[in-house]
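call fold(seq) -> tokens
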Amino acid sequence: MLSLDDLAGASAPFSIDFRLAEVNVRVHAPSRIVSVLEATLSNVPRFGPTTTPELTLSVLPKDEAWEIHGLEGAHQVMSGLSALPQVAGAVVSSAVRNVAASRRIITMRATVMERDGRAIALIGDDWESAITLATHFHGRGWTYVGTDNALLDPDTREVFCIQKSLYVNSSSLAQLPLQYRSAVEASPWYVTPQGISFYAVDPSVVKSSRTWTQSAGLSAIVVVDGGMADRSSLETVDRSRLRDDRFSRLNLEWDQIPVMDLQIGTYVESCDLIEHWFGSLPS
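ret:
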């Protein structure tokens, strides 16, 4: 079995600096982790070498595992057999959580898309479908606020941008819109120890007038939990479900945020339906 030094390439610390929600973040990590982070966060704003970071994270290979250290008490451990992009993704998630703690805002596991200053969050257990839907929205002129993590101020409902690459499972490629073909071809691909292959897709490669929005007001949520049907449909979420942890931790005024369950027919039909519903909501 490869040692972590073999996986990391070098145990000496390197670093990458970037900004999330106006917080300067520095990550110290072995060179190969930093290399993957550079690609994954290629669109994220950076801060200059003379600027002091407000938040520092460290990634350490230790005892056939990866340890990710953030704010006091914030600690995550991953198997040494994890694919490097999986470790990089965990580092980004850890940075998001630490930024949220430092700014007293909250995190959402969500893909967030924006149009005309209004954002819709795709949440749920069917992550591949949420990402695929987002690529179709992008192809229709929507912009990304976050691809798989979001920072949300529950008081103002403002969602802050996290400009991370899309991790797209190879099994989903045939469902992506044609605009994404060149982006996929330009993307690095990886294989996990379990044999799952995926691409790290930079959506800014897609021919579109705009890819990212720095922030937007959250106007609606769609739950994508893998429900499939002959025809797409949207159904109002039972209000009692809003007491579940998935919703209660967001601490939102739920009378003001419409939440719908999605049954997926085709992705084109599903996007048509969501756009029609979203467009009918009051501004």
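Residues 84-103 form the longest helix (20 residues).
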